[in-house]
Task: structure prediction
Amino acid sequence: MMRLHLHLLSDSTGETLEAIVKAGIAQFDAVETIKHFWPMVRSEGHLNRVLAEIIQRPGLIIYTLVNSDVRRTLEERCRIAGLPHVAALDPVTDALQRLLGQEAKAKPGRQHVLDAAYFARVDAIQFTIAHDDGIAPEDWEEADIVLAGVSRSSKTPTSIYLANRGYKVANIPLVIESPPPPILYELKKPLVIGLTTSPDRLIQIRRNRLLSLNQVAETAYVDQDAVAQELAFARRMFADKGWPVIDVTRRSIEETAAAIINLLLGRQSETRA
Result:
């Protein structure tokens, strides 16, 4: 097991760096990473204090600094000390400057400005939480996406993830004994998507859920035949209504959400065309 100190140095909150590093580290095995966050570094005095700390625990420095003087000082000090350093956003920013024919705005944290998109995302999160598990069907027409599936088919976590991307999502559990409200079949604006999974995977998830609640682990909820009937019921509904279906058996929440967004964008493109 290798141990690596990662120093994430930013003139803003450091959220961008954290996401980049998380994606990069995921590509390597047997690495223990120790992350050090150095946000809001906007002066050479602050930078000098940070570098004094970094030298005590040397490692890779990944940075986003728009102030040219602070950045130059960092790079010079790193070269002198022999510290590896990477400007995380340079390749993307340089390519955009060439393509757009304009200089990037040297403003720290510009992506975190409280603009209309930010408030739309907050609104999406509030909507999604208020319309979890079949709640308030009278509002479903306001949603961007409606997810349908049997219990424990990852509807709620997928909905929350999509809400954080700015999409209003409602989700509804499909139960054989309790048909969904008729309004589900009348929706015009939202994209209705069916989520399905394999019986074995679903039973495993449900068993774990029952154990976490200290409930009896042998019920119809995890019976092989009953689960197969539930899934068949859901698939027939998806087919009858012509809804797109995503099998989440081997997908992470992020992968499922990406597939949903692609379906939504494809639908929007067809509408514009």
In short: The CA atoms of residues 197 and 216 lie 23 Å apart.
